[in-house]
Design a protein that fits this description.
The complex is a heterohexamer, with three copies of chain A (about 400 residues) and three copies of chain B (about 90 residues).
Chain A lengths: L2 H8 L2 H6 L2 H17 L5 H15 L23 H19 L4 H12 L3 H5 L6 H4 L2 H12 L4 H8 L6 H11 L4 H13 L1 H12 L2 H4 L3 H7 L9 H19 L4 H16 L4 H8 L1 H16 L3 H4 L2 H31 L7 H4 L7 H13 L6 H26 L1
Chain B lengths: L2 H37 L6 H28 L4 E3 L2 E3 L1
The chains are: A mainly alpha (about 400), B mainly alpha (about 90).
The complex binds sodium ion (3 copies).
């Protein structure tokens, strides 16, 4: 064999010639990079995902995640991490140690917890209800996806996109349908980035101008709440502890997610004595986790896995799940307003979806467009944050029944 | 049971659970607030507290940094003298 | 089965009904949180330990550390980390990769080293002796625990609480009696937090006012030391290197702890050229290690493991070990004072215990109470820091003979 | 040998070892000091050195931060002019 | 057995008596520490390597990396990481999880990428060529080492020292000849530290004063380049993406290194929206990786592995590789200057070696010595950075043919 | 084939590959520059851009720190008044 031949065989050119899917995947990677970099769609995740996708699809680099059959051995045993690294390279080492073990999403949730302020929710506890109604999209899409031929576990992973919460969607998919991890993660993060488009769309479709002009502050003046919080710090410290316990009892399978969320929140609220810990949770730990989560999730998307009709269905289904969740939240407010004197702005239902805090900001802008004095941000944050809990609980139920 | 029937049941269980949990959030939140108001009031006007909170959050990292920086530059002998209203 | 039944089985309510131990554990978790948050007892560790304990005791969450028999296979083999994560969840993944391997305590010791200043010890080297006498509590309690029916390995883990050094106690226990990790870690950190109570208690019992008024600075003036340090930086750089080598030769089994301590100290003293490394050692690495150490140590304490008479004995034994160690240090000073003209304040013996730097601060306050001009802090720090080396050496001996 | 006898022996070995090692700490510490005094004196008064040390420790992180911050704010043209005694 | 005997057997004194190699290794460790601390030779790596070496050579501490046969099992299987930690301690746990898997060098390359500015190269793209010529040392030494009896894989690892790039040298050696990791890493980092000596040496031997006085800025004025960059930010973002793809296609086996380098660079250039990620990549991740890389590489160097003639040959061969690479770069410039009107200063060839950015600084100083107005730094950086790509590509070729 | 012959061949393949890749670096770099110049010019003088870049890099971490620190110290009411030329 001549030098030139050897040289040629070292390259991946032949692989590209053989499989034109690679080129298509590179285009998709380019589009995702464009969305992340230029359009600023959740760049912290889309850029690593896109780069991981590109690396994974360049044949010969050994940077693509292999299906789990490759690491299965006889007798219900698996290759160990050292063997995985040896046989399949560092990307699989990362994937099978950090992702497939379900490790990173709870770790990121710890950071999310340490960044979350439950204050707005505690000041408007009633509104937390609407984070429940806005989970309907998850189950509605689960239902339709099964009808379309997905397995229940796959359908649940698809539906959870409607939870509008990245780590929750990824964790659920790891547990139920890891082969769909790539497209589901991309759909989840893309639609979260598209909240400024989706929320106004659905809201305008379903709400009258009069409803959108409901002024929460004036309602508060008309019907003041009984419980003024006298010691916010104490309440904020007790809240994650009590909630952590109660959620663990009722939906044990949501503990890895919500337990870590509440732990992160607790160390934030305790404050300066454990600032080293909350700094680590929101800083080095969360950033490192984000890099490796993104790269490895991207690396699962080889052309064989990604280029099929299911991916299209996930993209479409995810959008529907988002829309139904928003609609569910709005509908719940409308029902409530029928019964109660103290009216609620339906935008607070729309933000029950979660996608914190962008949904709240978008909702606030919509409200201001109709009435430049109607600031609803703090109220939206209440249902917005409760939507995080809501979708993690929904995830727990799904994992518990289908996992 | 058909997958669809199962999915319907799952929808029921799921939405009920979510509603139960978020009801508990509301309920327990209110209980905590009442408990704290009764036994650990430390009557602090919310607004002041909030500002203080924020300040202390900043303090921890940034004020400490600037103050000790100035101190160090001057060997412990200096301090910022002019900080005026915006 | 009806929906309600299914829903009920998803929850952990039945488990709680079955085992009331769970509720007791939650109360213990609450107490530890109270101590950490409100009383500020070593909050950096007690809060994560307490939260880990709570998560571990909520049945169904899969957040409790399983006994090592669960991961043993035939033929002296063990499940690999990927299988552990799959079978037992992320908390066991963390425990069996970071704790049971003995990894985190040395890592934390690296950070401790990078935060430790050997300067006060180098300026008063003689006082380092008293860090030896203050290890007697370790062995005294080892002796009595064996008499009370503990195995030697368990007794050693119990005794090491008297070393008053968290990572050392945890490392020794991992090596000798991992099933006692939870209570021993809690006892160690609690008593370290209680140093402001224990040290004055023992000191007042054993020392006369005259002794506590011994003024070290005046003694230094009366009997000045011969060796003034002309180049502190060079000495501080050479010290951890030489000590690292010598300790490794004499007590090889203490190398994982002391080797990392001296390495951390070296990169601190080298200064600005390797500031990136010492920043990492004391920052992201140490904080991350602290979070995961706390959570997983807490997660070992299920009700079955924790709720028995041994735990009570550990709590009591740990207190005795602390007290005897302090008394040992004081006694050594008294003996020394009988023989030497240059008298030493017995508080310097009391701080030989370690519990850096709180013991020194407490001792300083005691001294100031008796004579408002008698600042002993720098002198206490000498024996205080040498106590860290002393207990790590003692740990090495114990591991070497019982491991 | 009984466990108790073994424990007693362990106590002996342990305390002897601890004393030996801490004696070595004292001994080697003194040797290092003498060696450095003889061969690498760089006669620096301890107190000055200490302050310098401290300063440089702060410097690295905080002084650098404040100084460069001020520089940047002003595009490299500004500096802190008034830092007075406490 | 008396207490004294037991005590003696606990120590490592007998081991030292048995093997005098230990003492020699301690001296070598001391020398490396001296070079790192006092001479400031790449202290970030030499200090951890030296300390790891010292810890590894103190018998009984269990801190030395065991040969890979110790972790091999029957049937092409290996011990898992938990078993490795149990059987061989934390240093082997670190080595076999982070180093032998090839994990840390790409991780460090991600940080290097996030610290690299391709700007100078993009502004003087032509000069990137000379980063190719300066790889000749790698292959020249490969050739001679085979002649001297090294296996091809060993010879390639030796030659790659001439790439003057730490992570590349380490990664290649892990893949091809892990038993030589210690001496090759030390040689690579030592010679990079010695660039201020080696570059002037070779340059003065091969270049006339007239050549060294060639003023690049004046050449630019005489023959201005056509392509002014109108939107540097866009170019800098597109560059790592396009290069990442193209390199992956042509040299797939260099993807773990160059893919991560370009990813790190991309997140740097995207800027503030993903600053969290680039901060992590250059901060906590890179610093942590550096500590553990250094310690474990040092810990591979037990006296049995290090004290033999091959180590001497590696030290000598590495120096030759460096010298030939520099000479190759200079020669390429000379050939170019024969053909082109727009002359190039041969220092730009010398910096093709890489060893960024020290080589460029040294070259700049040489130029200024001959003409105090001849600033060549920016031009040198162009070939300097392209030398990093060049040696990673060379490494890819070697791994592809010999791995 | 002898090891030496193989090594020679490897040298050939290696150096050719390195030259090809770095040629591609030059080629693609130039193509990107042309493409960007044509389709995404955003005519920004390079120097200004650079300074801005640098500033914003500093800004992010340090200016923010100092400014907010001063703000916080003074409860949002203070600002640095005197920053003079060096
Ligand atoms: Na949600
Ligand atoms: Na101690
Ligand atoms: Na190179």
């Amino acid at each position: 064999m001549s030098i030139i031949e050897k040289l040629y065989h070292m390259t991946a050119i032949q692989d590209i010639v053989n499989g034109p899917g690679t080129l298509l995947m590179l285009v998709i990677g380019g589009v995702l990079l464009y969305l992340g970099i230029k359009k600023k769609y959740e760049p912290l995740l889309l850029i690593p995902i896109a780069f991981g996708l590109i690396l994974a699809n360049l044949p010969g680099g050994g940077m693509s995640v292999v299906p789990s059959e490759f690491i299965e051995l006889d007798g219900h045993r698996y290759k160990n991490l050292f063997e995985i690294a040896n046989d399949h390279g560092i990307m699989n080492f990362l994937y099978y140690s950090l992702i497939k073990t379900g490790f990173l999403p709870p770790i990121i949730f710890m950071g999310v917890g340490a960044l979350t302020d439950f204050g707005p929710m505690l000041r408007n506890l009633r509104l937390a209800f609407f984070g429940a109604a806005a989970q309907i999209g998850i189950f509605a899409v689960l239902l339709s996806s099964i009808a379309l031929g997905f397995t229940p576990a796959e359908a649940a992973s698809l539906g959870i996109i409607g939870g509008a919460d990245g780590p929750t969607a990824i964790y659920t998919t790891i547990m139920l349908a890891p082969h769909l991890l790539g497209p589901i993660a991309i759909a989840a993060y893309s639609y979260m980035a598209l909240v400024p488009v989706i929320v106004p769309l659905v809201t305008r479709l379903l709400c009258s101008e009069k409803e959108l002009k409901i002024n929460m502050k004036e309602m508060d003046k008309l019907y003041p709440s009984k419980n003024k919080i006298k010691n916010l710090k104490a309440v904020k410290i007790a809240f994650p502890i009590v909630l952590g316990i109660v959620v663990s009892i009722f939906v044990p399978s949501s503990v890895p997610l919500l337990g870590m969320l509440f732990f992160g929140n607790l160390i934030k609220e305790v404050g300066v004595t454990v600032a080293r810990l909350s700094d680590a949770a929101t800083g080095s730990i969360m950033n490192t986790a984000t890099i490796f989560l993104g790269l490895t999730v991207g690396a699962t998307m080889t052309s064989e896995v990604f280029l099929n009709s299911r991916t299209i269905m996930i993209i479409v289904g995810g959008f529907i799940a988002f829309a139904i969740s928003i609609a569910g939240g709005i509908a719940a407010v409308k029902v409530y307003n029928l019964l109660a004197r103290k009216k609620i702005n339906p935008l607070i239902g729309a933000t029950g979806l979660s996608a914190v805090p962008m949904a709240s900001r978008v909702a606030n802008e919509i409200a201001l467009k109709y009435d430049s004095k109607n600031h609803v941000l703090q109220y939206c944050m209440a249902s917005n944050i409760s939507g995080v809990i809501g979708s993690a609980v929904a995830a727990g139920v799904l994992i518990s029944f289908l996992g | 049971m058909s997958d669809l029937g199962f999915a319907l049941q799952l929808m029921g269980i799921g939405m009920i659970t979510v509603f139960i949990i978020l009801s508990l959030v509301v309920l327990l939140g209110n209980l905590i607030i009442r408990f704290v108001n009764q036994y650990l009031p430390e009557e602090v006007s919310r607004k002041v507290e909030q500002v203080a909170n924020q300040t202390s959050d900043f303090n921890r990292k940034k004020v400490a940094a600037i103050v000790s920086a100035v101190k160090t530059v001057t060997g412990g002998k200096g301090h910022v003298t002019k900080i005026e209203k915006l």
